[in-house]
Design goal:
0% strand; single chain; mainly alpha; 7 helices; 77% helix; Arc Repressor Mutant, subunit A
Length: 169
């Protein structure tokens, strides 16, 4: 099917697909727009046709894809917005969580103390601040490759220290 043929086909079936999507939205309460669902469906059909997927009845395939998209939107909405019953939630986190976090923080401080101040800074910028290599290079005035190599070496040292700590108990 050529692009022009597909445009003619899409114009012809768009109304039918919109009606289907609107009925689904009305019944299911999905917050999506019918136009978006239909556009996604037609795009999917076009990709399948471009990739040589054998389609005997393009209109039937478009309806099937639209139904599938409607169900996908319904599932996605209910997957993320379904609330838990309030009476079943007993606490914010397990009692041991605070202890585990404190122990992990102590271990991290012990391991970081074995690194140079420069390596500590780079690891903090990368891990805790979430900066990219380019951002770290700009912030420290060091070349990107130097930052990358220093981070790699610091991580290797941390792994070696962790292995040493685990063997010594």
């Amino acid at each position: 099917m050529t692009t022009q043929e597909f445009d003619v086909f899409a114009t012809r079936v768009r109304g039918k697909l919109l009606g289907l999507a609107r009925r689904f939205i009305r019944v299911s309460g999905v917050a999506e727009e019918a136009e978006d669902i239909v556009q996604e469906s037609l795009t999917t059909l076009w990709r399948q046709l471009e990739n040589g997927y054998p389609v005997r009845d393009a209109e039937a395939m478009a309806v099937r894809i639209t139904k599938t998209r409607c169900i996908d939107h319904y599932r996605r909405q209910h997957l993320f917005t379904q609330q838990l019953p309030q009476d079943r939630i007993e606490g914010g986190f397990p009692a041991t969580r605070g202890i585990e976090q404190a122990e992990a923080e102590k271990l991290r401080n012990r391991l970081y103390a074995r690194l140079s101040p420069s390596q500590q800074t780079l690891l903090m910028l990368r891990g805790e601040e979430g900066l990219s290599l380019d951002e770290i290079a700009a912030a420290t005035g060091r070349p990107k490759n130097s930052v990358k190599a220093s981070l790699s070496m610091a991580r290797k040292q941390l792994i070696d220290y962790l292995k040493e700590t685990n063997h010594n108990g």
